[in-house]
Structure prediction request, 350 residues.
Amino acid sequence: MNRTVQWPALRGGLIALMAAVLFGVSTPLVQRFGVGIGSFTTAALLYAGAALIGALLRRPIEREARVQRGDAPRLALMALFGAAIGPVALAWGLQRTSGASASLMLTLEAVFTAVLARLWYHETLDRRVVLAMVLLTLGGMVLVVDRAEGGASQMLGLLAVLAATAAWGVDNTLSRSVADRDPGQVVMFKGALGAVATTLIAVVFGEPAPGLWPALALIAVGATGYGLSLRFYLLAQRAFGAARTGSVFAFAPFVGALFAFALGERSGSAWMLAGAALMASGIVLHLAERHGHEHEHDALEHEHAHGHDDGHHTHRHDPMPVGMHSHLHSHEPMRHGHAHVPDEHHGHRH
Prediction:
């Protein structure tokens, strides 16, 4: 039996962890390379890099489902929240607070994502998950208290980072509906829309043009920390839903905080350690969730990349393709019980 049937969260969790590491490393790098560069210009460079890597990673049509014309409004909203509001708020906040505390504050993105996934997609949130979100929220409040002691400017910077996490929470939840499309295409369109929009705003506000090397550095950070990270994030959402992907992605801030420390930042305090401990406890508790019961599958017709070893794709081909492939296919009604997560085939209500 395919290991993903026995351990349904294994593949999604590992992919989300890769996304988390890439994004986590990017936060202190944005702070370092974005010195003296306007917030909108920084966002434009980051998403130009993301659009570039997305274009390079597109898959053939027989392997991944294409982005459809009907996806345009959702992609535009994703670009607004994820490629404009989020990065601009983060860049503004990073210029006023420490990279380590900002990185830890980004853990709250998981809370916004989980709550919105519950409201929009009815993903399951048991008492363990709710307690995990409470711990994450308390950790964020502790960080705000820590920065308040550093003056109004640092606290405002941290609140701007909080606004970025809320924007990315909306973006993450919106992206769940296009996670079955070719992730390279989704990253390319979102990155291009975000880059164009923030470039125009930067020109309107008269932000100065950046130097060549800082610009190239931010484009490179955007390609890996935003573009490649988003591609892995979409694949993880496809595997086990928006809320759980957000919870694993909450490791990103700890990666960022450690990387900021490795780069020489020494702004830690007892409050920051307390906030980190609360947030780490919340992440561990969130990932310890287990879920399985007898459930029904309604008749369904859709298109996405799939294989024939997961117990849900039993349709026949002549000849039978090897590995993952994409085409429009149907599912017959079915009732069975097994461990599962809210992927594209397990969106039932509880």
Notes: The first helix runs from residue 3 to 6. Strands lie at 292-297, 300-306, 325-331, 334-339. DSSP finds 13 helices and four strands in the chain.
